[in-house]
Amino acid sequence: MTSQWINALSLANKAGKVLSGDRVLPAIRDKKAKLVLLANDASENTKKKYRDKCKFYEIELIDDVSCSQLSMAIGKNNRNYLAIVDGNFAKMIVSKKKGEYYGEKEENK
What we know:
By secondary structure, the chain is α+β, with helices and mostly antiparallel strands. It has 5 helices and 4 strands. β2, α3 and β3 form a beta-alpha-beta unit.
């Protein structure tokens, strides 16, 4: 079963609102990124760099996802970090992710 936040991320990607690779840092610096997703299995240097950048530029960060989840959601291999550049998609992904934390089920929505 695919998590709802992965479906939301996939939808954002199809809408062209997801950046990956070397486009993520400039989006953070320019404050175009509304949310950054960071894989928990990325290297320690990568995790530190993106956590520090997001904290400095006050960009929301979710760092409890895996590389395979990020890669699967956007259909590209080895994605350790992604930036969402649309505020509405960012809110949707965050709310779906929080719903997962609290054990909400689809029939409750």
